[in-house]
Design brief:
The chain is mainly alpha-helical and 415 residues long. The radius of gyration is 21 Å and the shape is globular. It has 14 helices and no strands. The longest helix is centred in the first third of the chain and has 32 residues, at 8-39. α2 (43-68) crosses α7 and α3 runs antiparallel to α4 (98-126). The two termini are 37 Å apart.
Amino acid sequence: MLAVLRNPTYAKLFSAQIIALLGTGLLTVALGLLAFDIAGGDAGIVMGVAMTIKMVAYVAVSPITTALVARLPRKAVLIGSDLVRAGVAVSLPFVTEAWQIYILIFLLQSASATFTPTFQAVIPSVLPDEKDYTRALSLSRLAYDLESLVSPMLAAVLLTVISFHNLFVGTVVGFLASAVLVIASRFPLIPPPEPSRFFDRLTKGARVFWSNGELRGLMGLNLVVATTTAMVIVNTVVLVQGNLGRPQTDVALLLGTYGGGSMLVALGMPKLLERLPDRRVMLVGGVALPILLLAATGVIASMDGTPQWISLLALWLLLGAATSTILTPSARLLRRNSNEQNRPAVFAAQFSLSHACFLITYPLAGALGAVIGLPAVGLVLVALGVVGAVATLAAWRGSADGQGSNSVVNAQSQS
């Protein structure tokens, strides 16, 4: 897998991704502490609003900024996004009111909503060989999972010697280092798309998704992933400390188990995709996730003590693994059903539409779970996951991997 890092451009871009992810992780910890410093007991409300703003920016801003910068060099877009993120991070330690946090978070996440799909759309051009690209996807999945484990630990270590305000310095350094690495990278020559109306550029990615059965199926899997991820991210702490009465360290252990399952699958994904079609692998994960979440709901409702805890650890491991079977290969579908000109729009559409699913499932898992309880909200999320899996099966039924994509790409490239 690491052989792909012999490509000097990809090695720099991957390093930029890791450094920016670590900076973002430090920012998340520092932001929570800043919210408590400003709002005290209402810090949870401030963070909840900030995270909602983040999701809204991801859903609404990504297609708009992608359309606005469609004819700009992608390197310049990435550098500009990093500089905006660094500028916002510099400003955060000086805020004194919650509304200032909201404005800065919207700017920060808008820049991230520009950077991430542009970055993802560049990698297929840097790594045209599909095997290399698949290895890069696995490395990217590992980077995201490791960041969720390493950033909190790094923040904890740093907080023993510095104040939380200084964590923002680490974030600034991360974004600036990312910009420097992008500057040092040699991008392939990608001709800009033909001039077109803003509305056409704005809707191009969504139109590719709507016209393409393979990508419509991916949308169903986005919903499946959102249901289980929401249950894990939102309710693990409630489950462990509220329902089970276990210590805080077990929250980290259960979340770490989930991440570990994802990393195990990501490590084996390049070899697996050499033997099996990516859609078959993704369908296995799409069918498995609602079943595993249903099993977890049963364990929460009917078991207790050590057997319950061991069962939950095993199920969280399997949930992470099944999630990775969908997320790791998904960009192969985007690459296969796009070309150099419309690829940023297609990746931006996936970025926006997948996060729209989280805008549905996160409030359900949190607010509804607090009202009706974890087992009941688990069943609601299972039902949504089944809807997503059935939609994918219907979209992909009777078609082989990759069939019909070229005509769609050609048609969209002419629009």
